[in-house]
């Protein structure tokens, strides 16, 4: 996430210097959960990585340059002119009723037949993860996650003092046998599983998609074991080769909380996401939302609603898919052209991300400062594990830069890797030793199997 | 909070019937904190109270009918046209840098000299209360609150399993001796106080303002006892008779977290509030914000920023103050004209609320259904206490209805009270007995002293 530039043309007096002390006089007074809220080790580096000369393959920002600003501006102008007093006022804690209807239309594309009453609008789907975790997780409760998993969700689970247990995934997504084994192991240890957090489509960061057969198997296991499924699906409509996959929620209404978002298909700056939940859970989510914000922003909800009403949003998504496919192709081609032979990766069928596994012994986190010096950035695999795994992998995003910049970024990255390999051959390991934590049946597991290039 | 009507003119297919069961199969699986998230007992009644024939003196919705929609529309149109790709994109977790500068300009009106680096933008100041509580409160920690206090903050404290200890207030605000006694009592009991939550200006619900002398005393006590002050100030610029009061934060930077909001001075539908915090606390708040939402909405932040830049917002606030003063006057006049002699109330010098204490023996919560039947609504005092006090009082809002409707509402309320008094004289108490919980030095205390009419 890069900071925004100030609005040009606005009067901007020089701010006074900050005078407060940098020592934390509150250090002994925070809640226990606050110990789980720590700045990412790579955050400082990302400030550098946001410089224009660096090709960032790190961020997950959607490319919204294709949005029709005239349509958006006119829809919002109409909104203020005709419904200003409603759009500028407090709204329902559950979210705008008209938008919740439109959200059921969006979900219908993935086979979900839902009632607007069961939808809760959230401040991006990040807040949906936060609210679900808030209502379900006591300290020490277990959340099952794919290995690797979305860094923002792992942060929420940590902030609510839940323990993450990773479950192996492969090129077809979550491995059912591994899921069953993880559930059995956690139950045997006397701990309580609160839910399985999964991103079935175009996984962040792994790029893989859960196969149809796997979906049925995963649902069967979770039904049998009474494990709630938290299905996070921000990228589901951004498949490159086919119609949207059928959601887990389409085949299981009572056992799945489904999360969606307009951040990838329209605008992340609106911060409009949602949860579709079984009725009783939905009631709790509304109470949690009211406690957290009173209500999500009426203004941005109605702006999204107006955009959906006045624009061919499905046509717009088709254009986005083409644009992202071109970028995916540019990245895969560049990987094939430049990366050293011992690297592996997958070719995602949608979404934003490729998961790259490095030659044995290379530590992606240790290498990152050298990559940024060479003007390319990525996210080391460790960010996507709660347990220290992932050092041998990295996430590359193809969503934001142009195809040319992607190619140049991968070229630079390959150069850094070559140097790294040479240095390693001369002097041994250049970064900290990779010391994976042993967990469940996984041993040295570093992410999903990837196709060898 | 009343639900919004759907957007007229939009295509709205009849939604399918909800089919999910109303039984909660998750009842044993929620987090312990979720037990503290309960729907208000009066929520169902408020659905009825939102009917147009009911005069609602219950809600705290600002009257935004005076906002210049043409200016707002044009500012937002310019925003999309010139800065669309930024406004529609993810932003900083801390909030838009330009807006944070403008927020320091707003706070300067209350004597606060702050750096934009120490400001965190939140989804309304409700979210600021949530984030501060999240980073400070473990279950069983104590939060000191005025008696009565803001219902939305009490909900947050409950949701994070903090214990609220109320401190008496009078016509000059929080009573310093009561504060010192409460701190001593809590410390003697071995519990940990995390902060004092206070609304110094035009208190919600009590309508009172903390005097200058009291501010110094409260700060002295909190410094000496090392109690953090959470200063919630949504109404500070809405005084009717004088320039804004000097904020507690203006005289104490390290010991105060200050909360502000654009909900009452511009638009609640934007959901833009903020926290100004000591540097170390600010860092934790940003991490908590990133975990909760990734970032607050860029779009509404930049819309607020554009409004502040392009409009005479201080002139607009002056108009609002006149409008609210007229409504306050209408309410006080109507109370004097209609209410039975044993009722007391205060005359607030700003904000939205009057605190009314009923004749002995009348239970405001028990009476509410009869009031709604008589087409007038209010909030019973018990909503503003964590401990069962307040049944003999009610909060009346003068912010939203017209002066004529306010007068009519109070007339209806007086009629209900008269009937209630007559019934009581004939048959004894009509509602549940008022059984106040004993707490600290308070005994049968039901809110601040009020002037006899």
Automatic annotation (TrEMBL), chains A, B:
Domain Aminotransferase class I/classII large: start-end pairs: 68-413
Keyword field contains Mitochondrion: no
Region (Disordered): 1-20
SUPFAM superfamilies hit by this protein: PLP-dependent transferases
Segments traversing the membrane: none
Comp. bias (Pro residues): 1-16
Record-level Gene Ontology MF annotations: transaminase activity
Name under which the protein is recorded: PLP-dependent aminotransferase family protein
Signal sequence region: none
UniProt entry keywords in alphabetical sequence: Aminotransferase, Pyridoxal phosphate, Transferase
Lineage top rank: taxon: Bacteria
The protein's required cofactors: pyridoxal 5'-phosphate
């Amino acid at each position: 996430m890069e900071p925004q530039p100030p609005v040009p043309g606005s009067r901007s007096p020089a701010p006074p210097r900050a005078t407060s002390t940098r020592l934390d006089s509150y250090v002994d007074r925070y809640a226990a959960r606050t110990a789980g809220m720590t700045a990412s080790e790579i955050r400082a580096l990302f400030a550098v990585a946001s410089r224009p000369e660096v090709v960032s393959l790190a961020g997950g920002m959607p490319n919204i340059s294709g949005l029709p600003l005239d349509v958006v501006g006119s829809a919002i102008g109409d909104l203020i002119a005709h419904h200003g007093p409603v759009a500028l006022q407090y709204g329902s804690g559950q979210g705008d009723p008209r938008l919740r209807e439109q959200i059921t239309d969006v979900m219908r594309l993935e086979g979900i037949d839902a009632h607007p009453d069961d939808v809760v609008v959230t401040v991006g789907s990040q807040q949906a993860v936060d609210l679900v975790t808030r209502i379900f997780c006591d300290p020490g409760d277990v959340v099952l996650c794919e290995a690797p998993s979305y860094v923002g969700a792992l942060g929420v689970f940590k902030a609510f003092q839940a323990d993450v247990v990773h479950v192996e995934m492969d090129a077809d997504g979550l491995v059912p046998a591994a899921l069953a084994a993880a559930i059995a192991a956690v139950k045997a240890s006397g701990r309580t599983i609160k839910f399985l957090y999964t991103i079935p489509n175009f996984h962040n960061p792994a790029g893989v998609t859960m196969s149809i057969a796997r979906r049925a198997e995963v649902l069967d296991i979770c039904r049998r074991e009474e494990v709630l499924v938290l299905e996070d699906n921000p990228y589901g409509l951004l498949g490159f080769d086919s119609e949207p996959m059928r959601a887990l929620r389409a085949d299981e209404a009572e056992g799945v909380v489904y999360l969606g978002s307009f951040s990838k298909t329209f605008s992340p700056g609106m911060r409009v996401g949602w949860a579709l939940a079984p009725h009783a859970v939905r009631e709790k989510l509304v109470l949690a939302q009211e406690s957290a914000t009173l209500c999500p922003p009426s203004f941005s909800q109605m702006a999204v609603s107006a955009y959906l009403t006045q624009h061919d949003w499905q046509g717009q998504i088709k254009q986005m898919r083409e644009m992202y496919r071109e970028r995916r192709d540019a990245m895969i081609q560049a990987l094939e052209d430049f990366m050293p032979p011992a690297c592996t990766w997958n070719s995602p069928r949608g979404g934003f991300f490729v998961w790259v596994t490095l030659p044995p012994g290379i530590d992606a986190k240790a290498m990152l400062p050298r990559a940024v010096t060479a003007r390319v950035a990525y996210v080391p695999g460790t960010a996507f594990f709660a347990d220290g795994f992932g050092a041998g992998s990295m996430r590359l995003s193809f969503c934001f830069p142009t195809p040319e910049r992607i190619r140049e970024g991968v070229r630079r990255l390959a150069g850094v890797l070559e140097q790294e390999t040479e240095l390693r051959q001369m002097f041994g390991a250049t970064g900290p030793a990779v010391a994976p934590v042993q967990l469940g049946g996984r041993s040295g597991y570093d992410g999903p199997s990837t196709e060898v290039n």
